Amino acid sequence: MSRLPLEDLRSLLAERSLVRLIAVAIGVFVLFSVLASPYFFSVINFQSMGFQVAEVGLLSLAVMLSMLTGGIDLSIVSIAAVASLVTAQLFRATDAQAATGMLAIGETVAFMAVGLLVGTACGVLNGLLITRVRITPILATLGTMQLLNGLAIVLTGGEALYGMPDAFLTIGTGNLLAVPIPVIVLLLAAVLTAAFINRTGTGLRLKLVGANPVAARYSGLNNDRVLMMTYIASALLASVAGVIIAARSASASADYGASYVLLSIVITMLAGVNPNGGYATVTGVVIAAFTLQMVASGMNQIGWNAFHYLIVQGVILIAVIGLNTLTEEYDLFAWIRRLRARSPDDASPPPGPDRPGAEPVPPTET
After folding, report:
1. What is the DSSP code (8-state) at residue 136?
2. 47-78: per-residue pLDDT in tens?
3. Residue 217 CB neighbour total at 10 angstroms
4. Within 10 Å of residue 189's Cβ, how many Cβ atoms?
5. 162-201, pLDDT tens digit by residue?
């Protein structure tokens, strides 16, 4: 009887986890379509969810990249705030709100580029702290989170910045063929992230470093360079999220989206990302982001508030981590290997007189 290798079985189980996530998404959709009917199942509601899910989806992709290497980036929201504040400050300093036509488009593109560049530079800072100073990722990004957040509050006095042109606001509030532009940005970023991970040498090295950093180093990989690229890419995704946030809310604030760090971690865990590194799926992160956005929208429509949603996030995080821990403790794959060892096909025939390894038969005395 032919059997699949253990590696193929791992792949199938990984695909099954994605199927289970899709099943959860369908279940959430059906549940709130019934409980919140007829408001939940409407084009306007799904467009509204699309405008909100993009920013947290982008932040979740940023967290996913850092988790893929066995680390974590807690500074994503602060980096997003820096990118949005820099962009808004440039609009405000040049009185760009009154600009129209090609001037408004040119200023929008230029100022967004500057904001993304500054946000990405924060990722360089994270990378240097991790690869040169040798601070663990969770502590390094916790420190930069506090640093960037404090700088943003001091420089703005804790006030929100306004005065952005319509050409910029359209990015966060406009539609293209009835599809919210932020959703298009999220899907494009997801495709590029998946291509980066699965179709480039850097992406392969990133997964190898996450799976076994010691083996990766002895095989000749430059782990520090891989980690530097990881946190730069993570900061770039977070900066894009910050620009989307500013365009959608028509303002930039240092403390906007403070709860997004926890939500992004919940999404990555629900998507099946291994927090110890080595495995992640972009498709799962996107589906998980949309699923939790449906939960948030549905709970709001049935009368539950944001505090109830925080409780649900905590429950999901504990449940997913607990399930993963129990799975590792009972070692599913070791159990499968034992079953394979006990398979009748693997059983060797007992040695006999005419088989190799048989004990010689002593002569019979007469």
Report:
1. -
2. 888 888 999 999 999 999 999 999 999 999 99
3. 13
4. 22
5. 888 888 999 999 888 889 999 999 999 999 999 999 888 8
**What are the phi and psi torsion angles at 176 (to 5°)?**
-125, 110
Instruction: Give the model's pLDDT for residue 3.
Output: 47
Residue 7 phi/psi, 5° resolution?
A: -65, -40
Q: What is the dihedral of CA 299, 300, 303, 304, to 10 degrees?
A: 60
Average pLDDT over all residues of the chain = 83
- As to burial, measured by CB atoms within 10 angstroms (0-12 exposed, 13-18 middle, 19+ buried), residue 147 is middle
Q: Is the pLDDT of residue 355 over 90?
A: no
Global confidence as pTM: 0.82
The number of residues in the chain equals: 366
How does DSSP classify residue 263? Answer: H
pLDDT at 351: 52
Whether 334 shows a pLDDT value over 80: the answer reads no
DSSP-H helix ranges across the chain:
6-35, 43-68, 76-93, 101-131, 137-156, 166-173, 181-199, 201-211, 213-218, 223-249, 260-270, 282-301, 306-330, 332-341
The answer to whether the Cα torsion of 184, 188, 193, 199 is positive or negative is positive
- From CA 185, how far away is CA 165, in angstroms rounded? 19
Higher pLDDT pick, 265 / 362? 265
- Separation between Cα atoms, residue 278 and residue 85, nearest integer Å: 34
